[in-house]
Specification:
With 363 residues, this protein is of the alpha/beta class. 58% of the residues lie in helices and 6% in strands. The N and C termini lie far apart (52 Å). The chain is built from 15 helices and five strands. Strand 4, helix 8 and strand 5 form a beta-alpha-beta unit. The chain has three domains: 82 residues, Methyltransferase, Methionine Synthase (B12-binding Domains), Chain A, domain 1, CATH 1.10.1240; 117 residues, Rossmann fold; 117 residues. The chain has a five-stranded parallel sheet, sandwiched between helices. The C terminus is likely disordered. The radius of gyration is 22 Å and the shape is globular. The structure holds cobalamin (B12). Cobalamin binds next to helix 3, helix 4, helix 5, strand 3 and strand 4.
Length: 363
């Protein structure tokens, strides 16, 4: 049964599901979704207009420190179970067979839930889907494609730091003649990184992905060939390679700089020091991907996101500045990295006006 429900109905469902997942009431959460399905709400609407926005809200609430990591994990675990219950419900039966698609997250990508939502939507639309889940090593993905003769592979990535790995996966899948549909937040809201990395197609969400697959994505022309470096001429300056190779050293140097110059660090507890080291490692990692894609906004957006996360936890945005300065000093001979770090510092300077002037400790 696939009728729709009015906007108010969906809003109520979202509110109810949010309340259930944030109070860790799995039975109630499943009941809300399955009752709506029985009452005639389309399974696709439940997946994309109820479950997906609730999950995204969980993410925003964690970012704003309104939910703890444990609460976010518990909510996500319940959402996964609710999707499974929905998928196994007798009302959730696919329309006629259309073709075969493999859905996989790129290597080191743990965000399997967006890919799972895509899987269920494609299944509802009649595709036979092989869902390979989170962090699929590229060689295993390629041998799976060899063995199953998929019409296309849908590659999912949510976090931008996985883009270089996604690039290798895209190239490897195409090399065995399978067209690649890319998607997930990592590829950019407008799909710019999917295009940059040579994906055959991109879609912003599961509905658009289903429409794109239905139109057919031509198999890559193996006779023409494509170099992995096409469109990435900027990599010739080696900045990406050198930053990635020096990652561990850069993190150590920045931490030593913070230790020397910020008395507050001496009073940090072990967990606080660990979090600072994680934050610095994250900064270096995102800088590396910004260099890979030659995207200034990728790095500034990440700094803006980190500043929001810190601010929500009572740490001012400017506390990121010392780490960026130390990194800038180390990378002063790298023009692209210098430009990105300067832009990020400019962003922080503008954001500073909204900070609490009393605190000045580094992240
Ligand atoms: C749940 C979650 C996790 C779980 C994932 C569990 C799981 N089974 O998936 C866990 C705890 C593992 C996790 C880990 C991390 N996470 Co997380 N996570 C989330 C969260 C809350 C929800 C993700 C989700 O399911 N979203 C819901 C769906 C609906 O998202 P969606 O992208 O809109 O999906 C649609 C489209 O993208 C599209 N789509 C998806 N895939 C594909 C594929 C193709 C081919 C196509 C065409 C379309 C398509 O279709 C989907 C349906 O329409 C988000 C917050 C958020 N707002 O998304 C953070 C978030 C993605 N995580 C984040 C972070 C930082 C991390 C960590 C780095 C945290 C840490 N310090 O360890 C790690 C990284 C792990 C890794 N290496 O991958 C950040 C990323 C920020 C950034 N700057 O990029 C976010 C945004 C949280 C936040 N608000 O700050 N995370």
């Amino acid at each position: 049964m696939t009728t729709t429900v009015d906007v108010t109905g969906l809003d109520t469902l979202r509110g109810d599901l949010w309340a259930a997942v944030t109070t860790r009431d799995e039975i109630r959460a499943a009941d809300i979704v399955l009752s709506a399905l029985d009452a005639g709400t389309a399974a696709e609407a439940l997946l994309l207009d109820v479950i997906a926005p609730v999950q995204a809200r969980v993410g925003r609430a964690w970012q704003a420190a309104r939910l703890s990591v444990a609460q976010e994990h518990a909510a996500t675990a319940i959402v996964e179970r609710v999707i499974a219950a929905l998928a196994h419900h007798p009302a959730h039966r696919p329309e006629p067979y259309e073709g075969r698609v493999t859905v996989a997250c790129v290597d080191q990508e743990w965000h399997a839930l967006p890919a799972r939502l895509l899987t269920e939507v494609l299944t509802l639309r009649g595709w036979k889907v092989d869902f390979l889940g989170a962090q699929v090593p590229t060689p295993h993905l390629v041998s799976h494609l060899h063995n199953t003769r998929a019409d296309a592979v849908a590659l999912s990535s949510s976090i931008a730091t996985r883009l270089p790995v996604a690039h290798s996966a895209i190239t490897a899948c195409q090399a065995v003649g399978v067209p690649v549909l890319a998607g997930g937040a990592a590829f950019g809201a407008d799909g710019r990184y999917a295009r940059l990395l040579g994906a055959d197609a991109w879609a912003p969400d599961a509905r658009a992905a289903a429409r794109r697959l239905a139109r057919g994505i031509p198999a890559p022309d193996l006779a023409v060939g494509r170099r992995e470096s096409d469109g990435l001429d900027h990599l010739a300056d080696q900045e990406y390679t050198l930053v990635v190779r020096a990652r561990a050293r850069l993190v150590r140097v920045v931490l030593a700089h913070l230790d020397r110059n910020y008395a507050a660090m001496a009073n940090y507890s072990v967990p606080q020091r660990e979090r600072t080291a994680e934050d610095v490692a994250h900064i270096v990692e995102f800088l590396g991907v910004a260099l890979y894609t030659d995207s200034d906004p990728l790095f500034t957006d990440f700094i803006s996101w980190t500043a929001d996360v810190l601010r929500a936890r009572g740490v001012p945005a400017r506390s990121l500045r010392p780490a960026l300065d130390a990194l800038g000093a180390e990378l002063k001979d790298f023009p692209r990295a210098t430009r990105m770090l300067e832009l990020a510092c400019r962003y922080l300077a503008e954001a500073e006006t909204t900070d609490d002037p009393r605190s000045g400790a580094p992240a």
